[in-house]
Amino acid sequence: MSSGSTHETSFPGPASASANENDPLTLARLVLAGDDLAGPALRPPAGDTSAGQTPLLTGAEAIAALLADGGVRSVFVYAGTSELAICDALDRTEGVQLSNGRGDKESAFMAAGASLTAPGRGAAVLHGARGLTNAAGGVADARRNEVGVLYLVGLPSSGSVRFLPPHGEDGLMDGIGTFADWSWQAPPVPENPVERRAAAERFVERLKAALSFCTTPPHRPALFGVPQDVAESRWIPLDTLLTTPPATPATDLQQPALEALLGELRQARRPLFLVDDYALHHQGIRPALDRLSATTGAAVLQVRYRRGPMLFERLREEEVTNFAGWLNPFSAAHRTLLDECDLLVTVEDRNIYERVVGPLPDCRKAAVNTDAAKVLKNEYLRDDEPLVVGEPALILTELADRLSVSGKSAPAPWFPAAALTEHMVSPERATGAVEDGRRAVARALAATLASWERPALVDDSQMFGGLLSEHYDDFPAGLRVFGDHGAFVGGGLAYATGLALGDQDARVMCTLGDQAFTNSVQGLVAAVQDRAQVLFVVCNNGESVSLKKQAAASYGASDRSYLANVGQLAYHQVAEAFGVPAQRVVVPVGGSAAAVEAAVSHLATALEKSAAEQGPSLVEIVLPSDADVWKGVWITQGFEKTPSEEPESVA
After folding, report:
1. 3-class SS at 405?
2. Of 451, 494, 645, 502, which is closest to residue 115 (Cα–Cα)?
3. pTM of the entire structure?
4. Of all helices (H) and strands (E), which one includes residue 324?
């Protein structure tokens, strides 16, 4: 079953099982381990000998069955007493791998990582209240990155509520639920049999709704709170598991806004599509965008982030013929493109506002988006301009289909070929020796990724990610890249571990800044424990180069020793202490060509050796902290004004 399916009622189970899919008892047997059809897991309460009584499940057993049916395959936990029943049920559920995340925060990130390539494939069991509060940053980060992941929260027993604290926190689910957009807390089990049956149906319906929410675009996390007594009590009639799940909203291909956008495209002579990387999470978006841009002769640009996390998945010219690269507000050619276009269409906009992309042109605009609010917050659409809501790949394909019906030949691209190389233009140019050294480092990583069948790159760095993004075209086609729009320094290691465990067909590299590594080192325990196939690459440049540059531009030069790394800390030795094979390579970027060449050769060998390890491995790359080595990688101000109007905006 696909991870996004919440409508099928057949549970995964042993291949030898023969089951009537409409028989709830057989369905549960396929999900819950045990050879005895009337075994302890499914036996009615002691002393109840009523003929034909529907077997009862505990709340925990019902959760395990429904998660398996809903496509959840990897669950991470750092258990407390409230969650033991849930963990036991999951641990004996066919098709679900339960892993100790060695921390609630780490478990939250790992579950999100397991859901990166298939929303809803990962889940975490978090302890309430300290565990959930510890994991709040992970929940918020999953929401910011639009990762569909379920967080089960084990709460104190209903009978303990009046004693809060120390057994919990008042309003915990409502408070942390603001980070998830969907939350629900199960009430106590009713004493009255009729009310108990209704409560069981509601419990099942709510859990199915949570799973559906996680797998419906725009993807986001959901919180499902379970008091300990609700998990442990045997009160869920097994046949309630067949409660019909909520319908998944379908994209309306007849909506008036789509018709309006179709009219705009027919009239436009110089259309331009501006894509945010969120669009690339949607299957089929590349061929749909290629076809529509070719049909209309439109130019395609992608938003580029120039500070904070900077490495995100990007389109390529071989995927979308009219792709003109990252939008570069420093480029005169790209500013001309914007000025001359007569229709600007944004696709999955999340951050297309002036600080990020510079002034938008004063032309007709439209948007295609799964979340209308994310567009409207950026304040560029007028009331009479179309906002088409739904799956972008479906919408773009529908537009291309309708435009192709006319039989007219596709117009030639209206933009100059020179625009295709303008994404590298910068007012801050490093020396040739520095640029050659930076590219050599990027190519060493790219060569390793190219040797893997299904490579994925999880980035948790800032300056290093910016360096790599400069040379995106050197990376292999088909590479999946997952950056962090939440800028949670220290989540990438756990994200990568979760991805490797949840999607074992993928081969994962995780690029980390030095501070990201120290903030997330606890996650290495789970990576070692479950032999997660991740190659961690730590960039050690001695200090927070980005913040020193930002501070100097904003407040003037100063020593700022508080931004330096701990000199005695060797990251590769820390990894080795955790049982991770590790190597250290010094690359003197900006030094002599011979020294850089020799160091990069050593780096390539280290990466090759590390990639051959069975389980996690780590390579520490030591790069200079010298500001000249990082020139052009980080800008110190936004694009509220164009560079020509505000030359002091870049240090």
Report:
1. coil
2. 502
3. 0.89
4. strand 323-326
Low-confidence ranges of the chain (pLDDT < 50): 1-27, 32-51, 642-651
Q: Over the stretch 261-318, which tens digit does the pLDDT of each residue have? A: 999 999 999 999 999 999 999 999 999 999 999 999 999 999 999 988 999 999 999 9
Which two three-digit tokens encode residue 174? Answer: 């409502």
| 8 A C-beta contact, residue 585 and residue 602 | yes
Can you identify the CATH homologous superfamily of domain 432-630?
Thiamin diphosphate (ThDP)-binding fold, Pyr/PP domains (3.40.50.970)
* Domain spans in the chain, listed from the N-terminal domain onward: 24-242, 256-424, 432-630
pLDDT at 243: 80
For the four alpha carbons of 423, 427, 432 and 433, in that order, the dihedral sign comes to negative
CATH class of 24-242: alpha beta
Measured CA to CA, the distance from residue 6 to residue 204 in angstroms comes to 12
- pLDDT, tens only, 66-83: 999 999 999 999 988 889
The torsion angles phi and psi of 562, rounded to 5 degrees, stand at: -70, -10
HSE at residue 434, side-chain half, CA atoms within 13 A, is: 17
User: Could you give the angle at the alpha carbon of 303 between the alpha carbons of 345 and 590, nearest 5°?
Assistant: 155
Class in CATH terms, 256-424: alpha beta
**Contact criterion met (CB below 8 Å) for 30 and 14:** yes
Q: Distance between alpha carbon 509 and the CA centroid of its chain, in Å?
A: 15
CB 548 within 8 A of CB 576: no
